[in-house]
Amino acid sequence: MNVLISGSRGLIGSALVPYLTARGRTVTRLVRGPAQPGGTEIPWGPTQGKLDPLMLEGHDAVVHLAGENLAAGRWTPKRKAEILASRVKGTRLLAKTLAGLAQPPQVMVCASAIGYYGDRGEEVLTEESPVGKGFLAEVCTAWEAASEPAAEKGIRVVRLRFGVVLSPAGGALAKMLVPFKLGLGGRIGDGRQYMSWIALEDVLGTVLLALTDKSLAGAVNAVAPPAVTNLDFTKTLGRVLTRPTVFPVPAFALRLAFGEMAEETLLASNRVRPAKLLARGFEFRFPELEAALRHMLAR
Question: Per-residue confidence at 198, pLDDT binned at 50, 70, 90?
Fold first, then answer.
């Protein structure tokens, strides 16, 4: 299987390339700017609409992970426009280009996010749950719709709705480690909001399943089976690190500092269930939070 990957230098992509290569797949990176010599990279300009279709011929599968970081800072109108454009324009360009190939790939795996469901309190959410409200829900809806040209061509499209990906190499966990190790960690707000998480190792397994299981299509929740509250997550991380967790972060302070971004990413409650993965018997390496944290933090 020849696999084309966008976003290959991000948290997921940088782990996915060696993971697939070790399993006998040939990987080509779709990169912004000039490509390195050797034929393992293809240049593109997702926001400029630049992509040479001739260079995409011959790939059996595509994994599309590229997009601006959602939690990089306060969501100004400019920042929100950049987030939306980075996902919709790039996905639409790639999907349309793949659909026009003489020999299109068999499958296109696209990143999405559980932000699709919005802030839903204690409601258990599956792939059949309706879209929620808010900026992230709007982004995810447009993001997923942008891959439709590929599906209309007959390419099997899998839209992975990622939860919080846990890895000490980056993302949310990496940002938490310093204050928690210093004993300055604590719950966010009242801590009752649900957090749907997944270990990076299980993300890789989910992508591989999406590439190989021909019956899998449409939205797929990429989260571990038990969502946890922020309070439970805080206590578990503190226990693993053997540090106290007595310094809560007030919700008003987060709203003051980060505005809408805090409301939808740090304070929102997403209790998501991976119904499709469970129905296919997917075996999570880390279905329990404490075991996952102990493994990745060598504790």
Answer: very high
Question: 289-296 and 230-241 are packed helices; what angle lies between their axes, rounded to 10 degrees?
Answer: 40
Tens digits of residue pLDDT in 203-259: 999 999 999 999 999 999 999 999 999 999 999 999 999 999 999 999 999 898 889
- Taking the CA atoms of the chain, what radius of gyration do you get in angstroms? 19
The answer to whether 146 touches 42, Cβ cutoff 8 Å, is no
- Average pLDDT, integer, range 74-87: 92
Distance CA 216, CA 135 (A): 28
Domain 2-296, CATH number (from 3.40.50.720, 3.30.70.20, 1.10.10.60, 3.10.20.30)? 3.40.50.720
Residue 75 buriedness (CB in 10 A; 0-12 / 13-18 / 19+):
buried
**CA 156/CA 62 separation, integer angstroms:** 10
